[in-house]
């Protein structure tokens, strides 16, 4: 792979306690009579950036997209892959490189048009086309046949290894066996697009609810890119509409935990995400649900800016920072929501050894644990090169939890590393994503939610080139072996992924894992059937009921 376009996928960040309440528009009462028609009131912590699945980059958008659109396969409540627009699981050739998939006869767009194999071909070719600057274009690089050549060398996108054998049969040719490929198709960039509708609106497609054509369980109403509130309404054209009980889901953007808690208490929200003191105060509340997540928060350390080495090009600086952070203190005292300290980039309870069924973290062990003595040792070595006084800017989003974590880390590092002045810069989440993607930062809070069910969804994000400017021939070579040589050798593939993570986190100290998220949710007793996948979307309510 010659080059890789990497985007840090935004996570659904937990809020913390703040004084005062702010929301978007006035939130409708969850006790109002519209619940007779199965209307529920939910929240997101951020605005939806786009409903064009090619430019997906944030959790709020992913959550909306998986309800408004639908791909070949879905994720069920047990994190299993199940047919969606596909009629059944794929027929896979003996060499693992050809997938033949039959589509449902009753899958339609919200305007009544049938969903066809050509809708997937059109969408995937658009995803591969460099001119479209799709955020997840890199997922085709080295997976679908000719994806690398189209992305990197200018090959015609029509030569991508996907074709419609007829209206209802899709054939996919892979570059090599990809063990996680079916799970990849549950992710929005691989959803279909209706060519006639998309071409009608061009670059405006997906920018507001009038420019969206749905094939999922819901349609989106009253939304544009500045909206702090929107509605998802049941799609009568959806093939499984009889099983969709909710008529409407009203969603409000609520960024403060105090606001979410108060609205839940006053019956204006049916579900609220809380953290910190609100979790501690509600430990005995029967409405409290703690949901383990696979999102990992970590520090990105930019090693190069404007083609010049930064302070983080110094390995001793990176190690000093990694050893100095008290992760247990962050999850116990700041987040206090069940989140756990991370000592690796791959989360626990995400994937298991294909031979022994052991969890990845069990096999890989803890990497770069907190060690104050080692932090000071490396800092003293670093100061011989960087000087006795140094200022570093820490970039975070403006979400409550992230700002609180940043403030705690600011104190920890300044206490542990004499002469360091750490300045915190908080900006809106999408701005933070853009700044880190463009390498316009020194130290930044990163977050990665898995796009598909495999450790490579994490490891590939740091392949060279990447937005931390970390470069390692050893790391890239391991990734090449995982993707090119070990597709049909699960045991070697597993060990190579363990070795790659160790190279990244321990040997090179390229990033600093901080914590793995656990979401604390207050959910009304009469709202049933919502579940929370450990990859892709963070919340699925397609078959939820409100009684």
Automatic annotation (TrEMBL):
Residues 1-19 form the signal peptide. One of its GO terms (biological process) is peptide transport. Gene3D superfamilies: Dipeptide-binding Protein, Domain 1 (3.90.76.10), Dipeptide-binding Protein, Domain 3 (3.10.105.10), Periplasmic binding protein-like II (3.40.190.10). It comes from Tetragenococcus halophilus. This is Peptide ABC transporter substrate-binding protein. SUPFAM superfamilies: Periplasmic binding protein-like II (SSF53850). Pfam families: SBP_bac_5 (PF00496). GO terms for cellular component: ATP-binding cassette (ABC) transporter complex; outer membrane-bounded periplasmic space. InterPro entries: Peptide/Ni-bd, SBP_5, SBP_5_dom.
